[in-house]
Amino acid sequence: MGLSSFFKNLFGSAKETTNELATKAEAAAQEIKETATPYLQQAEAFAEEKIEDLKQAAEPYMDKAEIYADQAKDLVQEYTEKASTALGNVVETVKENTIEAQKKTAEITSNTVEIVSDKTETTINETSEDIDNLNKE
């Protein structure tokens, strides 16, 4: 019984470590997302500012400039959305991989404890039989 508890405690710490890693990975992914957001907003603000400058400089060609400005704004917005989606996908992938690793760790731990317990029980039984045979002789 004590040996079984030992192995459960030993492999239980692996599960805790996996949980800690999952938490840290999720926090890191969130931090990356939060760090990237201001840069994306700055890029969008910069683009809008430059678009406004372009409109003033190209007053005679305003119709054409507005078309280009709208296209640039759409492009910046498209890339902002793509970056946000990509970061969200990274977070989801990390979560999925962590959950899968956690399941595999639990399964391996359970199987190992069962195997060790069975082998220990077999060894104890064999040793007990050997002692009984020696006492009979």
What does the radius of gyration come to? 31 Å
Number of spatially distinct domains: 1
Query: What fraction strand?
Result: under 5%
Biggest sheet statistics: none
Strand elements, count: 0
Mean pLDDT: 77
- Tally of alpha and pi helices: 2
Secondary-structure element order, N to C:
HH
Structural class: mainly alpha
Distance between the termini: 31 Å
Could you explain the architecture of this structure?
The protein has 137 residues and is mainly α. It has one domain (12-121). Helix content is 96%, strand content 0%. It has 2 helices and no strands. The protein has helices at 2-57, 62-136. Helix 1 packs antiparallel against helix 2 (62-136). The radius of gyration is 31 Å and the shape is rod-shaped. The model has no long low-confidence stretch (mean pLDDT 77).
Can I get a quick summary?
The chain has two helices and no strands.
Highlighted features:
single chain, 137 residues, mainly alpha, 0% strand, rod-shaped
Topology:
Layout: H1 2-57, H2 62-136
Helix pairs in contact: 1-2
